[in-house]
């Protein structure tokens, strides 16, 4: 929701009405950062849910919180400068892989004897 509100604010600031997605470069970066985060959100929520149910709630919650912090840093970095997004992007990708590993370990432990 925070990212969507930032897009709304940027639309007003740079006078870019929906459905336009181009205009001022700062608006385009904010819009693109929000879309990128939205694209990964279903995968994040699914992995968080499975890891929390089948592996460990605490480990999943900690990983999820770190992921959200990395995505916030990604968003802020992308809004400033496209190159500033890379460190947080890699961190969030590693955390998704960690959640995938926790989910797979939990599923294997649950369904294999």
Automatic annotation (TrEMBL):
UniProt protein name: Leukotriene C4 synthase
Organism phylogeny: Eukaryota, Metazoa, Chordata, Craniata, Vertebrata
Organism: Crypturellus soui
Transmembrane domains' residue ranges: 48-70, 91-112
Reaction catalyzed: (13S,14S)-epoxy-(4Z,7Z,9E,11E,16Z,19Z)-docosahexaenoate + glutathione = (13R)-S-glutathionyl-(14S)-hydroxy-(4Z,7Z,9E,11E,16Z,19Z)-docosahexaenoate; leukotriene C4 = leukotriene A4 + glutathione
Topology class, membrane: Multi-pass membrane protein
Xref: PANTHER family: LEUKOTRIENE C4 SYNTHASE (PTHR10250:SF4), MICROSOMAL GLUTATHIONE S-TRANSFERASE (PTHR10250)
Keyword annotations: Endoplasmic reticulum, Leukotriene biosynthesis, Lyase, Membrane, Nucleus, Phosphoprotein, Transferase, Transmembrane, Transmembrane helix
Family note: Belongs to the MAPEG family.
Protein localization: Endoplasmic reticulum membrane; Nucleus outer membrane
């Amino acid at each position: 929701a925070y990212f969507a509100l930032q897009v709304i604010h940027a639309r007003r600031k740079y006078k870019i009405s929906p459905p336009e997605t181009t205009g001022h470069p700062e608006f385009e970066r904010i819009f693109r950062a929000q879309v990128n985060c939205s694209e990964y959100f279903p995968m994040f929520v699914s992995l968080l849910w499975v890891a929390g149910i089948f592996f460990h709630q605490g480990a999943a919650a900690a990983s999820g919180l770190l992921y959200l912090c990395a995505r916030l840093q990604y968003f802020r970095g992308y809004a400033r400068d496209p190159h500033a997004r890379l460190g947080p992007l890699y961190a969030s990708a590693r955390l998704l892989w960690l959640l995938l590993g926790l989910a797979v370990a939990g599923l294997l432990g649950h369904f294999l004897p």
